[in-house]
């Protein structure tokens, strides 16, 4: 049986509470992982691992809830001159981000593609959306 959005959201909140040591009342859909919840780069690996554990029982053995490297959080994007120019994401970079991360809402980011705004893209809602997408694929 498919999980409701509330069930997915609760599991994501529990993972963030455990991984980041934050209180449940700080974990709102709009809260950013880095700026609001204090996540650091090392925390992203822990969050990914804990999300896999939180949802593994909801997927079939043939299609496990596995988060591939770079699937949830982009890696090495800022080091590619074709994707970043003068501290801003290029058109090619935006196309790649949208392709790799369909769970992220880029509507506000597109007006100011400053790399400094990338942390604002990763919110609690983003994680919930990601998990719902993964669950739809792995539970099918």
Indicate the structural class.
mainly alpha
Side by side, the strands of the main sheet go 1-2
β-sheet strand percentage: under 5%
Report the uncertain regions.
Answer: none
Continuous helix count: 4
Q: Quote the distance from N terminus to C terminus.
A: 10 Å
State the helicity in percent bands: 40-55%
Assign the CATH class of the largest domain: Mainly Alpha
Number of separate structural domains: 2
CATH architecture annotation name of the largest domain: Orthogonal Bundle
CATH superfamily of the largest domain: ACP-like
Looking at the structure, the CATH topology of the largest domain is Non-ribosomal Peptide Synthetase Peptidyl Carrier Protein, Chain A
The arrangement of helices and strands along the chain is: HHEEHH
Shape: globular
Radius of gyration: 15 Å
List how many beta strands DSSP finds. 2
Main sheet overview: 2 strands, antiparallel
Mean pLDDT score, rounded? 91
């Amino acid at each position: 049986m498919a999980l409701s959005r509330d069930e997915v959201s609760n599991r994501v909140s529990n993972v963030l509470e455990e991984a980041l040591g934050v209180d449940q009342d700080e974990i709102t859909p709009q809260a950013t992982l880095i700026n609001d919840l204090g996540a650091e780069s090392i925390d992203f690996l822990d969050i990914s691992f804990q999300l896999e554990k939180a949802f593994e029982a909801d997927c079939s053995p043939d299609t496990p809830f596995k988060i591939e490297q770079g699937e949830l959080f982009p890696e090495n994007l800022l080091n590619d001159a074709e994707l970043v120019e003068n501290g801003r994401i290029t058109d090619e970079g935006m196309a790649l981000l949208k392709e790799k991360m369909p769970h992220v809402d880029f509507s506000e980011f597109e007006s100011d593609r400053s790399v400094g705004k990338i942390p604002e893209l990763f919110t609690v809602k983003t994680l919930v959306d990601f998990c719902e997408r993964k669950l739809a694929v792995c539970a099918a």
